[in-house]
Design goal:
This protein is α/β, with parallel strands linked by helices and 207 residues long. It has a single domain, classed as Class I glutamine amidotransferase (GATase) domain (Rossmann fold, 3-Layer(aba) Sandwich). The protein has seven helices and eleven strands. Strands 5-2-1-6-7-11-10 form a seven-stranded mixed sheet, sandwiched between helices. The protein has a two-stranded antiparallel ribbon with strand order 3-4. Helix 1 links the parallel strand 1 and strand 2. It is globular.
Length: 207
């Protein structure tokens, strides 16, 4: 790995937004990529761990994924630490959360801080509800593309792409594409070579 091209002073706080009835892989896949990125980087540059990843929820409580797995998030909205990158996940509970005024207001306020926001799968519906997709390209799970078109007509909906980068707003298609999203982000924050090493360590074949 070319450490000369690596910003060894980089530190990013990454919050992954959870709620009941999320798709497990939506949040677990990007979480794992960022954690493995820390492993790969620290193997080359001792004590360098660029990413701190944690989970957040509307209010502190244990949530259940769509598959029934219990997850205890790290923080609530009101006590979470600094977030440089927010990842919103989806399916099928997101359709209840777009009615959660407190959460939507929090997303709007967070976006005003000019931080990056990303979505995986139908997490894009949350971004659309918060007005973050206006005039921006975005994608989601293939089964929800038309839903976004109908609900958020000002979004530029893109199908057939695993990751869409629209500046401060990024989106990934469905479920497993959370891996692609996180690898893309790591490549941008650090370098593409590290992304390849992470994919190799995960035995993940890049599309």
């Amino acid at each position: 790995m070319n450490l000369k091209a690596l910003n060894q002073n980089l530190h990013l706080d990454i919050g992954i937004l959870l709620f009941n009835d999320i798709e497990l892989l939506d949040f677990a896949s990007p979480y794992e990529v960022f954690c493995i990125a820390n492993v790969v980087v620290s193997m080359q540059a001792r004590d360098v761990t660029p990413f701190l990843v944690f989970t957040i929820v509307d209010k502190p409580h244990t949530i259940r994924t769509r598959a029934g797995l219990r997850v205890l998030p790290d923080f609530g909205l009101e006590d979470c630490p600094n977030i440089d990158l927010l990842v919103a996940v989806g399916e099928p509970g997101v359709r209840q959360e777009i009615k959660n005024g407190k959460l939507i207001d929090w997303l709007i306020n967070f976006a005003h801080l000019n931080r990056r926001v990303a979505s995986v799968c139908t997490g894009a519906l949350l971004l659309g509800k918060a007005g973050l997709l206006k005039g921006r390209q975005a994608t989601t799970h293939w089964s929800a593309l038309e839903e976004i078109v109908q609900l958020y007509s000002e979004a530029i909906v893109v199908g057939g792409k695993r990751v869409v980068d629209s500046g401060s707003i990024l989106s990934a298609a469905g479920i497993s594409t959370g891996i692609d999203l996180a690898l893309y982000l790591v490549g941008g924050y650090l370098n593409g070579e590290i992304s390849l090493l992470i994919a190799e360590r995960m035995e993940y074949v890049l599309p």
